[in-house]
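Reminder to self: tokens first, then the designed residues, so the page reads top to bottom the way the pipeline ran.
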């Protein structure tokens, strides 16, 4: 099936930011190749999501632990739509959700790096090779976007008590963004990293809020910038902007979307 509109490959489409982004990009006129975590997330859930937008969403299983799964996912999406114009590396595990894959702490640390950093690396490499082949075949270099969803923790700032491997994986995404941006200053590929702060998602609930009493939770949120969590729709709006035509001057940017938490990281840990 050939895409008439630009096509986005959005990993982690069932997460809080993922679902909000899928809705926002569909609204903006994009076609979506949506992924779900094979063996962890229910394919019926993403099917219900896709059914809301007939002909606009394709569904692809993904297990970021395995390069073979990543390659199959990318190839399937490419074959379904004909081309991929925008890649959003959104899928990730957090310090709590990584327990779905392993109980051993050392294995979890390895998986945080493997899934969050190496998974995004392989996807990015596949995407760039795909673009180069299209540019060579058509004789023209059409615009493309690579958007890495990192985190304020690791991507921009250091937080006491923040899990090392988690922060390291996000720091790797920030580095990869800068490196790829340097390599593509003379191509039409724009590369960005978006670093959300404390966002109202299942991942943040599991990693931070679930371990607190209601009183501690209220205190933490009251301590945050603007005294609230960031909503997934707010992050989705930023992703939609980066996917659009006016983001090119920001090529290479590691974008602070933390509502000021990167400027005052102590706000998140003062409750300890």
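Designed residues (272 positions):
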């Amino acid at each position: 099936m050939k895409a008439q509109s630009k096509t986005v490959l959005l990993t982690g489409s069932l997460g809080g930011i993922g679902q909000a982004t899928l809705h926002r990009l569909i609204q903006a006129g994009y076609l979506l190749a949506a992924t779900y975590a094979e063996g962890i997330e229910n394919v019926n859930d993403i099917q219900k999501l896709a059914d809301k937008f007939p002909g606009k969403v394709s569904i692809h299983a993904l297990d970021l632990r395995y390069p073979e799964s990543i390659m199959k996912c990318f190839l399937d999406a490419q074959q379904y739509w004909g081309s991929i114009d925008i890649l959003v590396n959104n899928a990730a595990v957090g310090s709590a959700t990584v327990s779905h894959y392993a109980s051993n702490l050392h294995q979890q640390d390895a998986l945080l790096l493997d899934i969050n950093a190496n998974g995004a690396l392989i996807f990015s490499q596949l995407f760039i090779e795909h673009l180069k082949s299209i540019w060579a075949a058509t004789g023209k270099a059409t615009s493309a976007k690579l958007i890495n969803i990192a985190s304020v923790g690791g991507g921009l700032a250091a937080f006491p008590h923040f899990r090392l491997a988690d922060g390291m994986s996000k720091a790797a995404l920030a580095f990869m963004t800068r490196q790829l941006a340097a390599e593509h200053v003379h191509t039409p590929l724009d590369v960005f990293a978006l670093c959300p702060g404390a966002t109202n998602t299942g991942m943040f609930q599991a990693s931070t809020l679930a371990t607190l009493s209601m009183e501690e939770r209220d205190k933490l949120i009251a301590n945050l910038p603007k005294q609230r969590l960031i909503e997934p729709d707010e992050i989705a709006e930023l992703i939609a902007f980066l996917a659009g035509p006016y983001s090119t001057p920001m090529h290479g940017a590691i974008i602070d979307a933390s509502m000021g938490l990167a400027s005052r990281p102590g706000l998140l840990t003062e409750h300890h």
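The chain is about 45% helix and 15% strand.
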